Amino acid sequence: MKIRHIIIVVSLFLVFACKTREERSIDKLLNIYGKNASKSKSIIMIIPLDGCGSCIASSISFAKEYSKKENLYVVASTIEKKKIHMIFKDRDFNNSNFIADSKCISEEHYLVGTTTIIFFIDRGRIMRKVTVTDENNTSVFEDILKWN
Amino acid sequence: MRILQFSFFTIFFLLFVIGCYINQSSNDESYQCILQPSGKKIGFNIDSNTIAESRSLFSFATTGDTQYLAYLNEYTNTILFYNVKTQMLEHRIEFTKEGPNSTGRIFGFRVLNKDSIFVSTFNGNTIYLVNSKGKILRNISYKKSSKNEPLVFSESWSFFYSPMIYKDKKLYLTQTPIFSDKICAEIDLSTDSIKLLPMYHPDFNKLDLEKNIFCRDFDGVNFLYSFLYKPNIYITQDHITFYEKLASSKLINKITLKTFQNRPSFEEGTKAFIETPHYRSIVYDPYRSVYYRFAYPGVEISKKDNLKILAKYFKNFSIIILDKDFIKIGEYFTPDNIYNIKMFFISKEGLYLSSNHILNPDYDENKVSFELFKLIKK
Q: Please, where are the H alpha helices in chain B?
């Protein structure tokens, strides 16, 4: 009886401790580019630069304006390195929280489609996932600034 | 025992030889024409603010017979004009997005001559006629037809070939079916009347609008439509009556669309897109009186494949050649990962097909490169 209880407890622990596929993908993305989002609360903003131009415009502006925000990781995803340099200048590249995802790891792992996706992370777990649209971008960007 | 071994060996050898022969002959049908890479390569240098892929590029010739390639840089809202012969940048028009004489963001364009260029902008469904300095000469708004039917924004792209057509003081804009199944709007520039023409999409899909997109060109008399999943092309002169002609690829037998019970995830959608064959641009070659239709055969995805590259650059494709009566007279199959299905233009010399494929060993992100293909009659 006791063994059965232990098995159940351990199983439940493993189930809840296991990261989701998206969480593992985010870990992999950060690892590949030598980043470590060890802050208790962090934000991963993935911008598909080959996606819908007008849909990602507000995210690009926000990412540039708040490139110094400590717990904000901006991932610019496209195969074409030149495009990343064109849109984000060297100033943004030098930011340690900026990821030029020219290997398209985020898209390989389906973390992003044609519009910006934002993950609100707390101690490695995804608390909230938002697709940025013209309708919600203002409120989502406000939430990012509050996520400390 | 030895005889048995010898027999097996002989059978395998014969199968191997027959297999090789069949494989080779599939590229060697008795077509009348072949498209042959000529070995001539040209490249246009681009600056640090231009990427080596454009959704809108068109060639045109001046009255002095100089050929130009007009190339839209969407990031700077600029059209670059390259001399094809010298490969030098000769002229540029930069469009402003705000302020007086602003056009907003340019999506596509059509050059009539250097001083008359129609540019397509999302700015309230507006087409601007501009001169060589970018000065707006006229603006044409087409939100609704004269009968108050809603109209769709028409990009006038080349990568999915659908330029606006100018004929007899009328503009013909493609209409991707959204509000209705109609596919073309006609704007009479002398009266400002706008009509949604009767011809309709043969496979109008109300549930999945992306499947309704199509390509179109005009040969001076006929409008030619190439729908994504249709082996036939559709030909019309008036958008009232039309007829079909088979223009299928040897690589595409039957197109079966993947169906999903719920809205597919991005992953499912991407995989389905890569695996499903489809037809793309149809382009008229006025120098040789033939038509080229581009076909993507779909590919099987293996674990080591980069889906992003497969979805954006396409591994391979074919170019179907049709004669003036729309009879198939040839088909060229590209090698893997060399050419870019989205960028090409026609010149007096032949078809220039871009070699800006990211897996092409010669790929240079600072150059827009093309290879000349000659049409050779057997």
A: 2-25, 266-275, 307-313
